[in-house]
Specification:
The structure is a homodimer. Chain A is mostly helical. The first copy, chain A, folds into 2 domains: 69 residues, Arc Repressor Mutant, subunit A (Orthogonal Bundle); 142 residues, Four Helix Bundle (Hemerythrin (Met), subunit A) (Up-down Bundle). Chain A has a 3-stranded antiparallel beta sheet. The radius of gyration of chain A is 19 Å and the shape is globular. In chain A, helix 4 packs antiparallel against helix 7. Chain A starts with 9 loop residues before the first helix and ends with a helix. At the A-B interface, helix 3, helix 4 and helix 7 of A face helix 3, helix 4 and helix 7 of B. Chain A binds a DNA duplex through helix 3.
Chain lengths: 220, 220
DNA sequence: GCATATTTGTCCGTATGTATA
DNA sequence: CTATACATACGGACAAATATG
């Protein structure tokens, strides 16, 4: 009996396709997604696509306006501020209450190591991926389904926000060693200091993203 | 220009209808929701109902299993524990960072007063409603869209859990004065003490709900 | 401000695949 | 193992709302 026969439904697979297109920058924030055009392009029926839209809407990736269709979400400054407020709450709390022997710690170690290797190769996109994995692992420390779900949603929103900020070196380089420092504090059982370091980390990251967003919007 | 012409779509209204039926106990947790039967009963098409199901699934009110349809969610002990963990995090944080002059404080005052009046009348169901309003107002203190959304979801799940625990006196009576005490601390600017009191409040409430749930499941 | 065209909202009928009796 | 019930997915149709000239 194979428990892992995903048997994904078409709706799930299509949702994944669109997610990928959005985060890959294929679909720019603000783009209107026409039901008729997209359904034909994807080779699925309009009804099915509409259910995909429901999924993505709840995930915050697309916005739905009655009788006006859906469009790729466009996080504004207020959203960024709110997202970082929530991240600070969740990630710092997870660090404060974590055990150094939690399985996720291994994933944090792995992410830090991998990020350093990619940095040596100059592959900043992969550095970014490992950075996200590091923070996901931190949230997993909390062992809370609901917090994890919320975190996945705001991560998706955040990817939208700096999906097109292509200055990846600026965006990710400074954080590799900060992550390593937080990990070391956690492994040493100095949880409160780890949480404190994370708070500072997030403030810096927030300022960077907000500044980049302002430059981007000014450039229109 | 009336900004508040909701012009709700049929999907939204239907979702609200089903939510009401669930929280009213009309639909018991575990009930299977057949597309054909429900769509006919509601007078809407199956396609439309399926979109409603997507909404409710993301809200955690119903569970969806591929090719087996949806059924009313049935929170288990792990869910209750997780929900209270999240509540503690959100509500205590909101209290710690709140201003005594935030508009939501007025709503808290209102909820406490109303709960006392309903208690005098012996209307425990209304006491429960005011209690939920009190805690919703606390979360609003945080001024965070995302935290508010998460809180709405776990509130709905919680309603599922003790929707049928009809011992409302036991469930709500002890909390009226606890709420009043927390409010007084907040108004006095003693935020940390208010958060501490809330933490204790939630622990007590958690134990009560878990015990009631155990009794209920034993009685099957 | 009006008439028209486009797009979404909703319904129906049907075919196919999957799970359960 | 077959049969049945049900969810999945499709395509077409029309009404209603919005956008366009």
């Amino acid at each position: 009996m194979k428990k892992d026969a995903p048997a994904q439904t078409l709706i799930d697979r299509t949702a994944e396709t669109i997610r990928a297109r959005i985060t890959a920058g294929d679909l720019v924030p603000g783009t209107r997604l026409s039901e008729a055009a997209l359904s034909e392009q994807l080779g699925i029926s309009r009804n099915t696509l509409r259910e995909v839209f429901r999924l993505l809407t709840q995930e915050g990736l697309v916005r739905h306006e009655p009788h006006r269709g859906v469009s790729v979400a466009l996080p504004d400054v207020a959203a960024i501020i709110d997202i970082y407020r929530v991240r600070r709450l969740i990630e710092c709390d997870a660090l404060r209450g974590a055990s150094a022997f939690h399985p996720s710690v291994a994933r944090m170690v792995q992410a830090v190591d991998a990020a350093r290797r990619w940095q040596a190769d100059g592959d900043w996109r992969s550095v970014g991926t490992e950075n996200m994995a590091f923070h996901t692992a931190i949230v997993e420390l909390a062992d809370s389904d609901r917090l994890m779900r919320l975190y996945r949603q705001i991560s998706a929103e955040l990817r939208l926000a700096f999906g097109h900020l292509n200055n990846h070196a600026l965006l990710h380089a400074p954080y590799i060693e900060k992550n390593a420092a937080i990990l070391a504090l956690l492994q040493a059982g100095r949880n409160d200091e780890a949480a404190e370091a994370m708070s500072g980390y997030l403030s810096l990251s927030e300022r960077t993203v907000l500044a980049a967003l302002a430059r981007q919007q000014q450039g229109r």
